[in-house]
Amino acid sequence: MEPVMQLKSWIEESKNIVFFGGAGVSTESGIPDFRSQDGLYHQQYDYPPEQILSHTFFVRKPEEFFRFYRNKMLAPDARPNRAHLALAELERAGRLKAVITQNIDGLHQAAGSREVLELHGSVLRNHCMRCGKFYGMDAILNSVGVPKCSCGGVIKPDVVLYEEGLDMDTLNRAVNYISRTDVLIVGGTSLTVYPAAGLIDYYRGRKLVLINRDATPLDGQADLVIAGKIGEVLGEAVGL
Ligand code: NAD
């Protein structure tokens, strides 16, 4: 059977699908990923992006961190694409249990998905490191230099930086969903960022679908590999 048709038929037979995705899910919304040819890691900065997005760098060079973060990690005008919309539709139709994402852009919720596990946090949430006061993305966008709370503390995005741990409750819920799902669709991720990528190992079924533009370490293990743009593939499979 043609791969997208195979995916369509697995989707139509299941009421227990889980999606696991990454930055590639949002490239069709105009947000660059990290590792593609046109991704952020191929652009030139004074420091490598992994270093800028680390906890140590945030503490030692906050001005530099926020310059990069404001320019490259915030996309206030981005809108959900067909991939986000197709996943939201599957949840509404009672077929998909959860979206587990490494993305921090909030586009799954903007598309209408409700059960979204954000492994790496969200740019839409920010807190003062001193008093804990909440701030939205605008507070970061509209500030200059290091964003400060009314109490004088630094406002930190609720984004998991390199060297920081993931939220245990979110990780445990992700493991639960993946270990119980019937169809696991993995897409738009290079599967190189751990521990997130290791979550796939908890899947025990025989319908592991991988939708990605470039090859990944999971290609040999997946039951169905679809090399293509995820918005087009999911859009077609769901009939959007
Ligand atoms: P990555 O950049 O390492 O890999 C992206 C993968 O998606 C690549 O393999 C690429 O081939 C594929 N891809 C790109 N566009 C695609 C498309 N339209 N259809 C199908 N595949 C496509 O991304 P990652 O694995 O998610 O890891 C990077 C980390 O960076 C994550 O932890 C994430 O938190 C963060 N990040 C998030 C965003 C976001 O929130 N939108 C953007 C950049 C990076």
TrEMBL record:
InterPro entries: DHS-like_NAD/FAD-binding_dom, NAD-dep_sirtuin_deacylases, Sirtuin, Sirtuin_cat_small_dom_sf, Sirtuin_class_U, Ssirtuin_cat_dom
Residues annotated to bind Zn(2+): C128, C131, C149, C151
Membrane-spanning ranges: none
Localization: Cytoplasm
Residues in the signal sequence: none
Organism superkingdom: Bacteria
One Pfam family cited in the UniProt record for this chain: SIR2
EC number: 2.3.1.286
Single GO molecular function: zinc ion binding
Residues that hold NAD(+) according to the record: A23, T27, F34, R35, Q102, I104, D105, H120, T189, S190, N212, I230
Domain called Deacetylase sirtuin-type: residue spans: 1-240
Active site (UniProt): H120
Residues where nicotinamide binds: F34, I104, D105
Function: NAD-dependent protein deacetylase which modulates the activities of several enzymes which are inactive in their acetylated form.
UniProt similarity note: Belongs to the sirtuin family. Class U subfamily.
Protein name: NAD-dependent protein deacetylase
Source organism: Candidatus Lachnoclostridium stercoripullorum
